[in-house]
Amino acid sequence: MERFKAFLKRKNIIISAKKYAVETMGAMAQGLFATLLVGTILSTIGEHTGLSFLVTAGTYAKAATGAGMAIAIGFSLAAPPLVLFSLAVVGSAANELGGAGGPLAVLVIAILAAEFGKAVSKETKIDILVTPFVTILLGVLLSIWCAPGIGWVAGKVGSAIMMATELQPFLMGILVSVLVGIALTLPISSAAICAALSLTGLAGGAAVAGCCAQMVGFAVLSFKENKWGGLVAQGLGTSMLQMGNIVRNPKIWIPAILTSAVTGPLATCVFRLRMDGAAVSSGMGTCGLVGPIGVYTGWIQGITDGARGPVGAFDWVGLALICFLLPGILTWFFGLILRKIGWIGENDLKLEL
Length: 353
Known about the structure:
By secondary structure, the chain is mostly helical. The protein folds into two domains: 2-156, no CATH class; 168-340, no CATH class. The chain has helices at residues 2-10, 17-49, 52-63, 65-76, 81-97, 102-120, 127-167, 169-185, 190-196, 201-221, 223-237, 243-248, 254-270, 290-305, 313-340. The radius of gyration is 21 Å and the shape is globular. The N and C termini lie far apart (46 Å). The relative contact order is 0.10.
């Protein structure tokens, strides 16, 4: 056993729930962002401006989704070059064979392929053949055997959440909004979770609401301490910046969570806000305005497919209220109450920017 542990240490294979469930998932979300999400945005812009080269660029970017996710995962695991490059093949296979649950299949299979690839890396004199051979063969075999099943499970879970939201928009609006919003601020990837579950539709709208409540909410709530720099860093960047302060005083999280519990059902019951763009957008919130852009691209796709009518004033008002105005106003209001009763103290939300 000691020799095995020494081998794992030498190969930098760290078997850790935190690394596999948090760090690699965050990396996968970046791979998704750099391929599927950017590709969707480029294609949408190109279709509306008549710039065909943007559509072409977007098409190629989306086609590289599986490879991008797997390479990002390998990078987070400090995979050596031959393993890292081989993961492009593994990711493509897992994403295609995983269907709607492709991202989850890529996450599981890329981790296994990367770690086995690391184990054999530089162990032979023909490393340039052995390492990519083992990584690709194992990854593709796992994709053939496991990816359809992983994708099926992920798809069923996502479909169940979306169906439940359609049937019980009020309760599920609260639940999805609060939980996905919390995931956004925690050091895990809400975007990867939404992508893995293919969370779109009305449930996707609730997820967007929850994420925006956290990001815009913390940006406004902490404006007194962090001024404009904090507003931009949290409102267009990530509310995860507050995790250190949340650990020190968990009560500072209450205003944003309460806000998501309000905006979630408003999104599902009143405005019927749907996120029918790329599923990863459901978990991005206002990070680079990806959440609102995802809602918009979903509108346009729906019009193109004949699934919905023209975008009206009510749609735009709902988007503005759910994504920007209500998160700022409600979180500020709830925060004011908590400041007055002493649950949030001076500089409890201060960031080192």
